[in-house]
Amino acid sequence: MLAGLVLLVAGCATSVPWRVPYDITPPHLALPASNTGTTTALPVLRLARVSAAHWLKADTYQYHLLYQEPQRLLAYRDARWIGTPPQMIASRLQHQLEDSGQWRAVLAGQSRGTATWLLQVRLTDFVVNFSGPEAGKALVAGTATLVNTADYQVAAQHSFRFTETLPRASAQGGAVAMAGASERFVTAVSGWAAQVAGTGKSALRP
């Protein structure tokens, strides 16, 4: 039984040797939103550096075997991400905000320029969860906070959580699912920030 367990774990912890690190960039990039006949209503937004828990500050490709040891965080021996999860999410979110066409400008990190709004994102989960030897889901979760830079008061805060079913139980399948979950995450955060800024809403939401 022990030998079988070792083989099962090894099966999930290995994959076809990779030549390049995995990325969460979707297979095709969405075209920028068209602003024909419209005027950008929202002022300048600054996207702060995306923060994350300590265990997410590495390019390690991490996963859980929920059907065996749900609390134990494992990592592939022969696969990794192209960057840390917060770095990858920050890049995707920056592009999403710019491509939405809803802001006068979108500044990154410490870039020069004055912004009316500051968007802070903290990533709390970025992991592949295997529910069985042949099934699993990618999970991306985090909290977004929109701050008015005039007085640095929090205008609103919201938590986001998205999962995507793996097309196959492998590192490559997990990367495909993670790209989908990440896309839904950044799209939701982008839309939420624009809605809050557009309505001048001031509230904290769980």
Describe the structure.
By secondary structure, this protein is an alpha/beta fold. The protein has a single domain, classed as 3-Layer(aba) Sandwich (Rossmann fold), CATH 3.40.50.10610. It is 27% helix and 34% strand. The chain is built from three helices and nine strands; from the N terminus they run αββββαββββαβ. Strands 1, 2, 3, 4, 5, 6, 7, 8 and 9 form a nine-stranded mixed beta sheet that branches. α2 crosses α3. The longest helix is centred in the C-terminal third of the chain and has 29 residues. It is elongated and about 50 Å long. The N terminus and C terminus are likely disordered.
Topology:
Elements: H1 2-13, E1 45-47, E2 51-52, E3 60-65, E4 69-80, H2 85-99, E5 106-108, E6 117-132, E7 135-148, E8 153-165, H3 171-199, E9 203-204
Parallel strand pairs: 1-5, 1-6, 2-6, 3-6, 8-9
Antiparallel strand pairs: 3-4, 6-7, 7-8
Helix pairs in contact: 2-3
Determine the fraction of residues in helical runs and give it as a percent range: 25-40%
Tally of distinct domains: 1
* Biggest sheet descriptor: 9 strands, mixed
Name the beta content range: 25-35%
As a whole number of angstroms, the C-alpha radius of gyration is: 19 Å
User: Structural class per helix/strand content?
Assistant: alpha/beta
Counted beta strands: 9
Stretches where pLDDT is under 50 for at least 5 consecutive residues are 1-15, 28-38, 202-206
The outline comes out as elongated
Mean pLDDT: 85
Provide the succession of SSEs: HEEEEHEEEEHE
Distance between the termini: 45 Å
CATH class: Alpha Beta
